[in-house]
User: What shape does this take?
Amino acid sequence: MTTRRTVRDTNIVPFPICNPHGRAAERPREYVEATAQCLEREEGREKIHREAIAAWADYQATGQHVTGAEADAWLARLEAGDDAEPPQPRTTLAIRDLHVDFPPRTR
Assistant: This one.
């Protein structure tokens, strides 16, 4: 009589990738955990990237921004425990909205 190994009995877990024989491959538990952690980090990076792209598109559309110095001062007040309001965004004309006609060059 043979006994069948279970996930609880071993340090091996089924991994959802199939091997060439069409069966689920078995990977060490540490491998699966490391893969899950790597995916979490990559998803976090992707979320930050999407937020940055959205912020850039918003800036291009509205021109509203705060300077780095204003943001640093606000964050310093928050870190010190003050209940500080965020700085008011300022609006500037976006570079893409500028149109300058240069005279033709003469020699």
User: Anything to note?
Assistant: The longest strand covers residues 12-18.
